[in-house]
Amino acid sequence: MKPGTLIKGGTVITASDTFAADVMIANGKIAGMVTPGNLDDLSRNQEAFEVIDAKGKYVIPGGIDCHTHMSLPFGGTTASDDFETGTIAAAHGGTTTIVDFAIQSKGGAMRAGLDNWHGLAEGKAAIDYAFHMIMTEANPSALDEMADMVREGVTSFKMFMAYPGVFLVDDQQIFRAMQRAGELGALITMHAEIGLPIDVMVQKALAEGKTAPIYHALTRPEIAEATGTERAIALAEMAGVPVYMVHLSAQRALERVAEARDRGLPTYAETCPQYLFLSEDDLRGDPGDEWKGAGYVCTPPLRPKHHHDHLWRGLRNYDLQVVATDHCPFCMKDQKELGRGDFSKIPNGMPGVETRLHLLWEGVREGKISMNRFVEITSTAPAKIFGMYGKKGTLAIGADADVVVWDPNREKVLGKDTLHMRVDYSPYEGKKVIGAPSHVLSRGELVVQDDKWVGKQKQGRGQFVRRGTFGL
């Protein structure tokens, strides 16, 4: 076996630069980048390298999906992708690192939640992974435990204003956790929907016999997300700490983030591909088959189409920093079916970890974002915000050789039979995309080539990433 890999003839794209270079990889790291044809500057023995021909293609850092839910128990079932199937699918789509969510159970210790998620991932993950910690309460023992989590490399905590009785925490607990995070250099991420009034709207709709999937959206209006976003920003401003909004879906919530950033507050937000490409119309299903809309139930819900332009503008203007997926798939059969006749019981979530880069490249092709911005929102910004930059998120000497050779002309039709996620439908069934990975390397190992797994092993080759503290 040759000791290194040489990616020849491609154009390197980072968040800030575009240049022609040959990329040399050794010992799982980026060892050098040289002007094409000048390999002798680094090594006189070109035959020592496996060569990947990247002529006419782009060489980019592997994607980082900082919002996934593998093996998540929810709504009486469990997400259909585990850490094996989900990370294999991610790699096929050009993502080489995920950040998943461990959960503190109500009344339980964070340590138990972290140990549980380590057990779910170890020996299964095919690519590297890290964890956020979902806090279900912020009592004195939990606030103490936050320091232990940070020492373990779990340096961000998610809190919910939604899901009463399951995840919801009140403003006092959020504020205390924010203050403690500030002391530790950690980051609070927020699911910002006001869940108590949403619950009232859900019960009213059901009492009126409104049970179809579309009512998932109609009982979670835009104002609920905008108000939650404003509250979260206010609490963070009072605590003097940064805050990160997960899965932002709507214009008015984005306006709250933009206003805070204009005032110089360290407010950050992600959106997801489903909010850029799908809409409330999908939740209505097909004529004569409104149940098809169940495949599009996620939280926050899909919005009317006019929100798309606002979110794309937010990505261009840096009011949105990241595009993650909130990947949490449930099959239509046996899982989404749990909510037939009661939309509130449809497991919330959609598959997306494999299709993120394919879809966002459409934004590049249509001139909505630049290639550099594409790299930034899919890799570099999540690495910086979540304490992995330098090791992940860029192509630089000494960084992990998580590298994607991106073919801008490669065509693919998205569908349940052409993708690798373990789910029985695709929200993008039949959609043709142009632009896809030809080669995916994880820590220097070629794992996917031409949409086929070629790595020496799948199960368990991924490593846990201990993240640094928030550094922006």
Describe it.
By secondary structure, the chain is an alpha/beta fold. The chain folds into 2 domains: 4-60 and 392-453, Urease, subunit C, domain 1 (Roll), CATH 2.30.40; 62-385, Alpha-Beta Barrel (TIM Barrel). It has helices at residues 83-92, 110-121, 140-151, 171-184, 195-207, 214-218, 222-239, 251-262, 273-277, 280-283, 307-316, 356-365, 371-385, and strands at residues 4-8, 11-13, 18-20, 22-26, 29-34, 49-53, 58-61, 63-68, 73-74, 77-78, 95-103, 128-134, 156-160, 187-191, 243-245, 267-271, 322-323, 403-413, 432-442, 445-449, 452-453. Strands 8-11-12-13-14-15-16-17 form an 8-stranded parallel sheet. Helix 4 links the parallel strand 13 and strand 14.
Keywords:
single chain, 472 residues, alpha/beta, Urease, subunit C, domain 1, TIM Barrel, 8-stranded parallel sheet, 13 helices
What's the quick description here?
The chain is α/β, with parallel strands linked by helices and 472 residues long. The chain has helices at residues 83-92, 110-121, 140-151, 171-184, 195-207, 214-218, 222-239, 251-262, 273-277, 280-283, 307-316, 356-365, 371-385, and strands at residues 4-8, 11-13, 18-20, 22-26, 29-34, 49-53, 58-61, 63-68, 73-74, 77-78, 95-103, 128-134, 156-160, 187-191, 243-245, 267-271, 322-323, 403-413, 432-442, 445-449, 452-453. It has two domains: 4-60 and 392-453, Urease, subunit C, domain 1 (Roll); 62-385, Metal-dependent hydrolases (TIM Barrel, Alpha-Beta Barrel), CATH 3.20.20.
